[in-house]
């Protein structure tokens, strides 16, 4: 989920007042903050924009954002008039291909995949359309990312599974 608050955030002040916040300006110009309930991780930027991850549903994301905004208001990091706008931009799903053993090299050869074990220990496959990507693990697990809604995610998963079935790759792997 991505979005923005109606006003900017002083990240130095927020870092001092938000218990457990983390920052590393050399790596990222933002502030990381985790909520325990509801569980969510935020990346906050000075211009008021944010990224919210580790949420299971849009409703849970909005609940987490409401709680974060209340904390920001209570700590006087933003004004009491501050509001937020947000939208879901990226769904992530994990899939288990029932104990298939996948050879990264064979998968890369059978599909238009990228595999560089020096950069990432798993091949990744980009689909078109929609613009999504799969990480393929040796255990038969897949991670799909990039779909903006459940319908696109389902379509992508079905298309990818059909490709596996058509090539009979699932059986060989």
Give the terminus-to-terminus CA distance.
35 Å
Rounded to the nearest angstrom, the radius of gyration is 20 Å
CATH homology-level superfamily of the largest domain: TATA-Binding Protein
Q: Which architecture of the largest domain does the CATH hierarchy give at level 2?
A: 2-Layer Sandwich
The shape is elongated
Oligomeric form: single chain
- N-to-C series of helices and strands: EHEEEEHEEHEEEEHH
The CATH topology of the largest domain is TATA-Binding Protein
Proportion of residues in helical segments: 25-40%
Major β-sheet strand ordering? 2-3-4-5-1-6
**Highest-level CATH class of the largest domain:** Alpha Beta
Q: Tell how many strands the DSSP assignment holds.
A: 11
Which class of secondary structure composition applies to the elements?
alpha+beta
- The figure for the number of domains is 2
Q: What average pLDDT do the residues reach?
A: 83
Put simply, the count of helices is 5
Q: Overview of this structure, please?
A:
The chain is of the alpha+beta class and 173 residues long. It folds into 2 domains: 86 residues, TATA-Binding Protein (2-Layer Sandwich), CATH 3.30.310; 82 residues, TATA-Binding Protein, CATH 3.30.310. It contains 5 helices and 11 strands, in the order βαββββαββαββββαα. The strands form 2 sheets. A 6-stranded antiparallel beta sheet has the order 2-3-4-5-1-6, covered by helices on one side. It has a 5-stranded antiparallel beta sheet with strand order 7-11-10-9-8. A hairpin with a 3-residue loop joins β4 and β5. It is elongated and about 60 Å long. The model has no long low-confidence stretch (mean pLDDT 83).
């Amino acid at each position: 989920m991505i979005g923005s608050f109606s006003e900017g955030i002083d990240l130095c002040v927020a870092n001092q007042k938000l218990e457990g916040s983390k920052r590393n300006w050399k790596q990222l110009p933002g502030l990381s903050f985790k909520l325990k309930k509801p569980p969510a991780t935020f990346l906050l930027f000075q211009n008021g924009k944010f990224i919210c991850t580790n949420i299971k549903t849009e409703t849970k994301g909005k609940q987490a954002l409401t709680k974060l905004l209340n904390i920001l208001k209570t700590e006087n990091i933003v004004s009491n008039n501050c509001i937020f706008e947000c939208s879901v931009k990226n769904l992530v799903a994990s899939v288990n291909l029932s104990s298939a053993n996948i050879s990264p090299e064979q998968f890369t050869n059978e599909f238009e995949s990228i595999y560089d074990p020096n950069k990432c220990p798993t091949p990744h496959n980009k689909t078109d359309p929609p613009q999504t990507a799969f990480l393929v693990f040796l255990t038969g697990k897949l991670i799909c990312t990039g779909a903006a809604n459940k319908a696109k995610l389902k379509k992508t998963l079905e298309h990818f599974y059909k490709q596996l079935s058509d090539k009979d790759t699932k059986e060989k792997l």
